[in-house]
Amino acid sequence: MVVQQLETWHPRPRPFRVGILVADECIRHGLTVMLDSLSIVDRVHIWGSPDSIPWITPVSREWNLDVLILRYGDLGNDATERLARDAGNRGLKVLILLNRDQEDTLDRIIAIPSDGFIVQEELTSASLAMAITGVTDGMMPVPAMLANRLLTRAREGGLRPATAGTNLTPRERQVLQLLVEGLSNKEIARRLSVSQHGVKRLVSNVLAKLNCPNRTQAVAVALTDGIVAQSQ
After folding, report:
1. How far is residue 140's CA from residue 5's CA, in Å, rounded to a whole number?
2. Beta bridge partners of 117
């Protein structure tokens, strides 16, 4: 299974601090209203352009965030990728906000180094809360339209002999298989009887060896290149 089901969620002791980078004022307002209604969110920072984000202008510790929501299409692909990578390097989880009509660009979208995806037309306060909590717990929210595209590509391309994954260790291959099944870091740690820190290191190794910016693309490569089998 590619899509991690986020059926239940539990707030952490410290509420989340969430940043929104969305150019459209109406969409920014809607997201802000949803986030302000959530008890798990302590603070919301809103930007209409990347130039106003503190780490791009003067850096300030008081603006420290847990999650950054970027709307795909507001910036060019290169700018979005750079911003997402910079945020990830600073320890933020990055959620990409998509539209349903962007399905034709999904191959480019999954190349962005993000931690999950949400669809604007499907958002509710509850689903947004589950996505935020899930992504910070090591899960990767993937909408059905994106999951279906990945599986379609896997079927059309067939399961070719492994190439990119030949340098994976047996343990890394196990982790990749569990990523394909949609397990979170916590669930992988429990399954393999290792620490969550160890799982994070293994996942990072897998992404580096497959030359993938995120779990979604690693799953796509794993399926299309036959590195692991699709779970039934």
Report:
1. 9
2. 96
CB atoms within 10 A of CB 180: 23
* Delimiting residues of CATH 3.40.50.2300 domain(s) in the chain: 16-147
Whole-angstrom Cα distance, residue 132 to residue 95? 8
Band of residue 97 on the pLDDT scale cut at 50, 70, 90: very high
Alpha helices in 110-169 (DSSP H): 125-136, 144-157
Q: Which two tokens stand for residue 212?
A: 């993938």
The span from the CA of 205 to the CA of 145, in Å, is 28
Q: Which of 155-159, 169-173, 227-231 is predicted with the least confidence, judged by mean pLDDT? A: 155-159
Residues 183/196, Cβ–Cβ less than 8 Å = no
pLDDT digits (tens, 9 = 90+) for 1-21: 344 444 444 444 468 999 999
Q: What is the mean pLDDT of residues 89-113?
A: 80
Class of the CATH domain delimited by 16-147: alpha beta
158-224 CATH choice from 1.20.1440.230, 3.30.70.1490, 3.30.70.2190, 1.10.10.10: 1.10.10.10
Q: What is the pTM of this model?
A: 0.68
Question: Rounded to an integer, what distance in angstroms lies between the CA atom of residue 190 and that of residue 193?
Answer: 5
